[in-house]
Batch of 4 targets.
Target 1
Amino acid sequence: MRIDSCPIPATCSYCSSDVIYTSNAAIYGKEYGNGRVYKCTGCDAYVGVHTGTDIPLGRLANRELRQLKKRCHSLFDPAWKGKKVKRRQAYSILAFKLGIPVHECHFGWFDMDLLIKAINILQQSEWHNLRS
Ligand SMILES: [Zn+2]
């Protein structure tokens, strides 16, 4: 798998507190997956890392961003899990509609504006048709 780089967060983009690299037991109560996370010391924002690296999976996400991201996946994933398009094609279509390069089309990288824009696109009937 290609690992795209997302900058290591030093300061929280939501509350400006320091961000620490720590065990994800701080979030889940016990270590889960690869066990590492970047976590804000001031609010509930965090992001996991690619296993075996300290490279963040995406941008630091607070609760609101995580919910929007989940909503995107619930609308997006059924398209490529169906028969009409492959995963790569689905990302290409979405990237085109969002007006961004396909290699930047990762929900984990999106900010709130882009997630909302994606949700609007994914709710259109055209996208709905890809799923069936
Ligand atoms: Zn914060």
Target 2
Amino acid sequence: MSLKSLTYTSLARLDLDADDLENIHRSARDSNVIEGITGLLIFNGTHFLQIVEGAPHAIDDLVERLRRDPRHSAIEIREEREIEERCFPDWSMELVRVSGSYLEAKETISDRLPEAIAQPVRERLIRMTEAISGTVSL
Ligand SMILES: Cc1cc2nc3c(=O)[nH]c(=O)nc-3n(C[C@H](O)[C@H](O)[C@H](O)COP(=O)(O)O)c2cc1C
């Protein structure tokens, strides 16, 4: 079966609170189980960085819904590619809350990424997490 991975960043609605985040996470997980989508959602208080992986049509449908969702804006697709296998097979959507400070954010995400993840993917994710939380450009 063909699989696609898509990574985007977005800007959270300014008044998004902990309950909103919890709602996003819970409903994302529930619906991703049904849709066969797995991935990782990183939130640093102002920005989201999300990787979603699954059947191409499921990912395309999700991106349409994400674009209509007023809880975030300025969605920018950072990477979209066909993959052989999933990087996050056990995560229907893992939420990782990181600091707005890039050094702390880097440490948190490094600790939380699965051991089995390929080195280039790990490095890219750490770099992008640093970027949403600080000084490095994407
Ligand atoms: C940052 C963020 C991440 C989200 N991640 C997912 C996700 O992984 N899966 C999902 O089904 N919905 C996710 N959502 C919710 C969708 O944008 C959308 O609200 C939901 O799929 C229901 O869409 P509908 O009301 O158009 O049916 C996310 C929303 C936000 C703001």
Target 3
Amino acid sequence: MAKKKIVIVGGGYVGFEVAQALDELADVTLIEQREAFVMPPAAIRALVDPTLLDQITLPYDKLLKSGQVVRGRAVSVSQSSVTLDTGDAYPADFIVVATGSSYAAPFKPSGDSIAEFRQASADVSAQLAKARSVAIVGAGAVGTELAGEIAAAQPGKSITLISSDDRLFPMYPAKLGAQLKRKLEGVGVNVVLGQRAQDLRHMDQPYQGAVTLTDGTVIEADLIFPVIGSKPQSSLLQNVPGVTVGSSGRLKADAWLRPSDYPNLFIAGDLADVGDGMTIVATTRQNPWLIKTLKKVLAGQPVERQKPYSPWKKAPILIPLGPVIGNSWLFATVGNWITRTMKGKDLFIPKYRKAFGLTSERG
Ligand SMILES: Cc1cc2nc3c(=O)[nH]c(=O)nc-3n(C[C@H](O)[C@H](O)[C@H](O)COP(=O)(O)OP(=O)(O)OC[C@H]3O[C@@H](n4cnc5c(N)ncnc54)[C@H](O)[C@@H]3O)c2cc1C
């Protein structure tokens, strides 16, 4: 019997893993606009260690054994196919859309070119090396890690980390944010809390200039990094019948991660407003659910008979401040050793290189 066709749009943390897990069971097509997968967590450290760039962009050519990875941009989705901007259409019994999100440069590619992403990262890295002062606007995980990476690799710079919240990581027990603040201050970072930057000149790339805070303080810096969050990429599905865009720009979904009137269309990851954050940690819960559910559905069982998806109640989080120190919340606040061992040391680079069939450092 012919295998069912699954078309997956977006080869990020959701798409690559779901495609690989179903490769043997279904006729899988993964549609991805870029020639390589990029690891944003490691793109932070690449700014202070540009040699990492060679290790954190992973070509798709060894990902699937049976299925195909098609390089292209999907522009429309129907119940039975996905169409690219070239006009090529890929028939599907099931469709997974995981188009993710965009982020300010140089942390994720802004377009489909990996060469341009590498150049943007290298340019900012060169500016950073020369900068005497840095201001980071936004103290979520990216801003906090960036401050820690710069302080660890380039001590002596003036680094200011600015947050509009009154404490770091306000969604987590106070101990996590308090310990991270203390460690950042210990390596010389000036942590400014409860202040909003009023006049960011660019939201999408670093620049030299000044920002004015809510209390009127003006902070001048050789490099200002706007790191104020991910923007979901939902345009592909906005005209599909039944799709609802949530207030965050993410798409609503039913209990089986289906966003529309099409019963065979699923979403996950940063695109999906299903109660999880826009994190890889979220995909570590969503991907296994999606893979298990799709396996059952491929075997002919109705979707509605499967266990509904339930999001993380409070997702774990790992915040390295460079390769050695950091804090994490793994259902309790933990410190340097666990954070370093689990993430700070290698940023999961070997794990993803292995998944992409690249075992050696440069292989
Ligand atoms: C700097 C940074 C650091 C981060 N660090 C962490 C961390 O340490 N831990 C953590 O849990 N989370 C982290 N995150 C968040 C994490 O990167 C995202 O949650 C994750 O990438 C989401 O995965 P995804 O598969 O939903 O989307 P993405 O990874 O964004 O992948 C989407 C893919 O879809 C492709 N695509 C989009 N539209 C189309 C189209 N129309 N046609 C074809 N292809 C398309 C894109 O090219 C992209 O490859 C970080 C984010 C950033 C920016």
Target 4
Amino acid sequence: MENNPASLRRDPSESVKRALRQEVGFGCPIPHCRKPFLSWHHFDPPWHERHHHEPNGMIALCIEHHAMADRKVFTKAQLHGFKKADNDLSTVRAKFPWAQPNHLVRFGGIYTQGHDVPVSIADNDIIRVTQDPIGCMGLSFSMRDQRGRLVAAMENNMFQATPNLLSDLHVDTGATKIRFRMKGGDAKLDLSFRFVTIDELKEMLVHDEARAQAAYKKLLPNFTCSTANPLFSREEIPQPEFKFKVAESVIERARTRCLNEEGRISLLDFRNVVSYIDGRKLEIRDRLVYEGLSVQFSAIFR
Ligand SMILES: [Zn+2]
């Protein structure tokens, strides 16, 4: 095997990362740690001895324990032992440090922001955003499969998932992304936290509005409007008097309530969600769809 090939990137392939996550039960395997913010440590042989991405000589660790492993706090034999330890999701819990006040939340072309904003369908909260007395955000949501089993939940920024139901859980070391896939593809989630400028927000709004307009046109060939209505179902054909200036109101809200000192907005972006409410499918991609009810482009502020 070629030693230290210059072309090999330090970051392993997605399939190697997935195997390493699964091996440790999706949490750092150092006893009593179990954080899901994982990085990839090369130890047998170490990266500086030979560049490789062989899963047998690598282990998933949180960054704190990765730094210790780099300083040889753990022996090779110990690390091999941690790889073999019987760990599963039941011990993985993660408090997400989303301490920014005034997040803007986007899911499926719907924007929300405020002090206590539940987004409910059929009397079930699907997402709830709260703020504590010092202005820090608490995010809560739960994801269920078609049989009603709880797959994963976030309760006030504390994330936990149900063992044996997930095929993959990936949380990045910066705690800015959560991605999980359920076995059999039933429920799934891609959630990211990032900062955007007003211009980037405008681009997103243009995209979301165009998607909504295209959906209206498909349902209602002769209907044209400059601004999409906030909400409609297949049974309720939008009336012009219900016109709602979604993009303008989102930008106004973002400008007045969400901008930080660097002129950026902290955005929590739910993309690619599948969950079930009483066995009925809820899907969020570019729009939110539940039981034929399609919520296209709207803003919920409080
Ligand atoms: Zn750790």
